[in-house]
Design goal:
Elements (H helix, E strand, L loop, with lengths): L7 H13 L4 H7 L4 H13 L3 H10 L13 H10 L1
Length: 85
């Protein structure tokens, strides 16, 4: 598990990508339909990704999109979360 304070960029990018498909990770944790381990896994995956700059740029330009960046290693997982809601 990574502490989000130690990985603020990965946490912000993960949350940003989740928001693109209308998933609020903080709310999901509070409501209990998403576990801490699952969020940790998403942040860990983002932290290991080498596409942080393209990701940040994509998030800045993709307002209103309901799609995720094809290069995002969390793409499938985040889209599946959207279906759970």
């Amino acid at each position: 598990m990574i502490n989000y304070a130690q990985t603020p960029v990965a946490w912000a990018l993960t949350r940003g990508m989740a928001r693109m498909v209308d998933v609020d990770l903080g709310h999901a944790l509070i409501e209990g339909w998403l576990g801490r381990q699952e969020v940790d896994g998403l942040v860990d995956t983002c932290q290991a990704c080498t596409q942080k700059e393209p990701c940040s740029a994509w998030l800045t330009q993709a307002h209103g999109s309901r799609c995720l960046a094809v290069f995002c290693p969390n793409q499938e997982h985040l889209q599946s979360l959207c279906l759970r809601m």
